[in-house]
Write a structure and sequence with these properties.
Structural class: mainly alpha
Number of strands: 3
Length: about 190
């Protein structure tokens, strides 16, 4: 059978992990995108640094030597939906962590209204209630391709496909604005 492949880290840790401003920024991103831990942030930062590193190395090459690699990189970023079709190679260097986090399955499920919060979106994905093109995806960090975005729906075997399910009713009905008792007293 052979030896199993050695597992390797898919992320680089920060050089200075205890800087207060970085800790605050990471904590804000954790809450905003409903991430489980900081390793998810670090994994996406590593992916971003790889794309930006490829972009920097391509800018240093001659024009005829880089054309094929540049086209491959730009096509990949366009397919994921991070860059637009008319983007230039310089735009790769302007990418931010939020650009990648916006393409995660968890974020897109929340923005499409299939879940009421980021945490609920993560739970629905992990429990197998979300499918893309009829294929169940159970990884919240899956980067959704641009053409897969329209194919996203509840899984066919999920009880959430029932229109009378409480979660689907709550997702379709817009939430009423919360008013405090002071505001009600002012109206009267």
């Amino acid at each position: 059978m052979g030896d199993p492949k050695k597992q390797r880290k898919k992320f680089d840790t920060p050089r200075f992990p205890w800087q207060m401003d970085m800790l605050d920024a990471e904590l804000k991103i954790l809450g905003q995108y409903g991430l489980r831990n900081k390793r998810e942030i670090w994994r996406h930062k590593t992916l971003l640094s790889k794309y930006r590193g490829i972009g920097r190395s391509l800018l240093g090459m001659s024009a005829e030597g880089r054309s094929k690699q540049e086209k491959q990189l730009m096509n990949r970023l366009h397919r994921i939906g991070i860059l637009s079709e008319e983007a230039e190679l310089d735009d790769v260097l302007d990418l931010t962590l939020e650009d990648i986090l916006e393409r995660r399955l968890q974020t897109i499920v929340f923005h499409k209204g299939l879940a009421q919060s980021m945490q609920q979106a993560r739970q629905l994905i992990a429990h197998g209630h979300i499918s893309i093109g009829g294929r169940k995806v159970s990884s919240p960090s899956y980067l959704v391709l641009k053409d897969e975005e329209e194919k996203m729906a509840y899984s066919t075997k999920s009880p959430l496909t029932d229109p009378n399910h409480p979660l689907t009713k709550a997702a379709t009905i817009p939430a009423e604005p919360i008013t405090s008792s002071r505001e009600e007293d002012k109206r009267e």
